[in-house]
């Protein structure tokens, strides 16, 4: 029977004298085989030492505790590396590497960072357990009740995310602090969102429909309404437009010269008599205004403002008409946008050409502000049903 101190060895000896040696020295063994001019046997480790003094030998297998010890010795560097990796992993997962305070107010951010640091929460320090975090939140809220309505510390791996709602005290400055929420003015895919006040309900790359609440004025904790605030923040999203446009191959473009002629004339029983500024041209845009009309006068006085234009006739081909149609469709979109909004991309979905014009249907992706303030939504607590029971 193989015991915990046994080893399997190979003896580099071909002579049968080796067997006589085993018998003469009363060396115990479990099995003995001869193969390729060598002997293979299982014996006690101490017996192996005796044999190795006389013959060239090699251990090819350990048994029991000695086998475990041998595995550890042969893989000691791997095991040490694994142990170090576990220690590093533990330290990494229990260390704060980043603190994100979700507010654009630098003054509030600075005060909260100071409060967190004073309570043992800062970068490269050990993370706190749930009970400690709860106490720290309550302490920070009490220490900063002049600026904070609510605060939450969320553990996200190696990051602490700080959600907060600033207390609005603006009555003395006549600033409207009526509770409100920010909703989506139109459908879109959120690309940028910052919250100065209120609770963020949506995330970047999340699709919203018109009317969806993005930043809520309801501050809720544990399914209870804590406070209602006036929400403020920025929400920019990818939105979509379709523009249908056609451009003729033959057209006239008018360009204002900046020259304006004021033509004053009298209307006497339907006949015009020029007083000043008579100018006859088919290159003007005329606007007429009645200046004097009294029942006791036999005439009416008119002012005709003539804005002088230059015009040019164009005869273009299909390629030029296509490029012009694209530019005009872009102009229509840009008229809708503010300076911080822009066109992301465009794609022609439909193109039709006939003898007189070209028609395009163009799809636009646009980056624009979709935030609009509205009355804060009514808070309805969630009700958990426990099923039907018979009594």
Give the spatial strand order of the biggest sheet.
11-9-15-21-20
- Spans of 5+ residues with little confidence (pLDDT < 50)? 385-391
What average pLDDT do the residues reach?
83
Top-tier CATH class of the domain at 6-74: Alpha Beta
Please estimate the helix content. 10-25%
Cα end-to-end separation? 68 Å
- What profile does the largest beta sheet have? 5 strands, antiparallel
Number of extended strands: 22
What fraction strand?
A: over 45%
- The CATH topology of the domain at 6-74 turns out to be Alpha-Beta Plaits
Q: Per the principal axes of the C-alpha atoms, what is the gross shape?
A: elongated
- Rg, alpha carbons: 44 Å
Which structural class do the helices and strands define?
A: alpha+beta
Under the CATH scheme, the architecture of the domain at 6-74 is 2-Layer Sandwich
N-to-C order of helices and strands: EHEEHEHHEHHEEEEEEEEEEEEEEHEEE
Q: Provide a count of the helices.
A: 7
